[in-house]
Amino acid sequence: MDEVEVVVAHSERATLRVGDVFLKVDADRARLEAEVEAMSLAPVPTPQIRWHRPPVLALAALPGTTLGRLGGPSTGSPAAWAAAGAAFRELHEAPPPPRPGQAGRSAAALRAQLDAECEQLVAGGVLPADLVTRNRRVAEAALRPWTPAFTHGDLQIAHVFVDGDEVTGIIDWSEAGRGDALYDLATFTLGHEERLDDVLAGYGAEVDRAVIRGWWSLRSLLVVRWLVEHGFDPFAPGCEVDVLRSRG
Question: Any signal peptide, and if so, which residues (predicted)?
Answer without folding.
Answer: none
